[in-house]
Amino acid sequence: MHADLDYFYAQCEENVNPTIRGKPVVVCVYSERTEDSGVVSTCNYIARRSGVKAGIPIVRARKLLAGTEAIFLRINKELYEQVSDRIMTILRKYADAFERVGIDEAYLDVSRRANGDFNQAVRIAPQIKREIVRCEHITCSIGVGPNKLLAKIASDENKPDGLTIVKPEDVNTYLAKLPVSRIPGVGKKVEERLSRLRVSTAGELSRLDSTVLIRTFGKSLGNYLYQAARGEDDEPVQEGEKPNQFSRIGTLKSNTREIAQIIPLLDNLANSVAIRLVEHNMACKSICIIAITDSLKIHSRSRTLESPTFDENNIKQSSRELLERFLQSMPDVVIRRIGVKLTGLSSRGGQIDLSRFLR
Ligand code: DCP
Ligand code: CA
Ligand code: CA
Fold first, then answer.
1. Sequence-distant (≥ 6) Cβ neighbours of residue 119 within 8 angstroms
2. Which three-class secondary structure state does DSSP give residue 250?
């Protein structure tokens, strides 16, 4: 399966402020040069109907949405990362093997739990969609297929809130009419060159000789296109590279050096990195806090532990102590943002995951 969250950043914003639902919502990355300079990060489907999409200038989006009640918001990556982390935890539960790809999508291998039966696999997808809506009020689109490539293509088929199944016996029919632009990795340039070869569907692409493809696109892209046109892909679903740090940073409601006002956020961040540690079945040797002052100076303080830990309370307590000492050593700083970072990560191997077991 491939799951992709719908208009993700904009959907998070709709949840934070439900009154904007039903209006065009545009999430912007302001470059801060002039008032409206910058680009659109994403937008909801209502805004898309007016031609707004990721990557266009904000000024253009404003023109396209003139006369509507459009809402323009500044990107808030911290919020989206938190929602994403929680959704990934839900998704992971449904998979034998799980592979997160970026902030809003993931592959799930469900072969084993579906007993190798495609019909059983297909029943899992609606359960996942329901749980994500129930817990996080976020819709997603899921594609189910015999491999990662087909699942990914399928998840894009019926957005938003889609569920598309490509059974092994239907692969050829499905690909016959599929526009080449729907193949991951086929952008405008490749599409144009293919159209010069009179190819506009995957079916037509599959009739090209591999030597022609390699001559036109080089060995790696040529070979990929040759296989993709046939729906072939044998990449396993696997967790990415082991991370070498977990960090999380947050912005305080107002700038302060009052420890009592900082601790709730700090605890939250410490909890969140500790959960990631447990999820990856890892332990950390060092704990670090990062403080960004009201004048945007960055400070950090760290502590190396005697032995690696994955204990939430230990991580929380150490972060608090680091903060306390930092404030004492810097009588003039006022803090704007605070972060917790875990480094010196190691795998906990076959060790029993007690904290998770007890939860
Ligand atoms: N994103 C971005 N700039 C881009 C593309 C994406 O900042 N050029 C961000 C915003 C998106 C998120 O990444 O919300 C996920 O990207 P997607 O391509 O999956 O797009 P959406 O989730 O917004 O929409 P869709 O419903 O089409 O998946
Ligand atoms: Ca998405
Ligand atoms: Ca995506």
1. none
2. strand
Q: Does the reported pTM lie above 0.85?
A: no
Coil, helix or strand at residue 239:
coil
The CA distance from 88 to 100, in Å, is 7
Whether ligand 1 lies within 6 angstroms of the CB of 159 is answered as yes
- Phi/psi for 109 (5° steps) reads -90, 115
CA 80 – ligand 1 centroid, Å:
11
Which residue's CA lies nearest to atom 21 of ligand 1?
7
What ligand 1 atom has the least distance to the C-alpha of 10? 14
Catalytic residue among 13, 14, 99, 105: 105
In this prediction, residue 217 carries a pLDDT of 94
Ligand 1 in contact with 101 (CB < 6 A)?
Answer: no
Give the 3-state secondary structure percentages of the chain, helix then strand then coil, rounded to 5. 45, 25, 35
Residues bordering ligand 2, an ion, CB closer than 5 Å: 4-5, 8, 104
Place of tokens 């990914």: 152
pLDDT band at 357 (very low <50, low <70, confident <90, very high): very low
Is there a catalytic annotation at residue 32?
no
Q: Please, what is the Cα angle at 78 between 157 and 259, to 5 degrees?
A: 160
Helices (H), the chain: 8-16, 45-48, 58-64, 77-93, 118-136, 148-155, 171-176, 188-196, 202-205, 210-217, 219-229, 259-279, 312-329, 354-358
pLDDT score recorded for residue 241: 65
Nearest CA to ligand 1 atom 3: 41
**272 Cβ inside 6 Å of ligand 1:** no
Q: How many angstroms separate the CA atoms of 122 and 126, rounded?
A: 8
Residue nearest ligand 1's atom 7 by CA: 41
Strands 71-74 and 25-30 turn out to be parallel
pLDDT tens digits along 9-68: 999 999 999 999 999 999 999 987 778 899 999 999 999 999 999 999 999 999 999 999
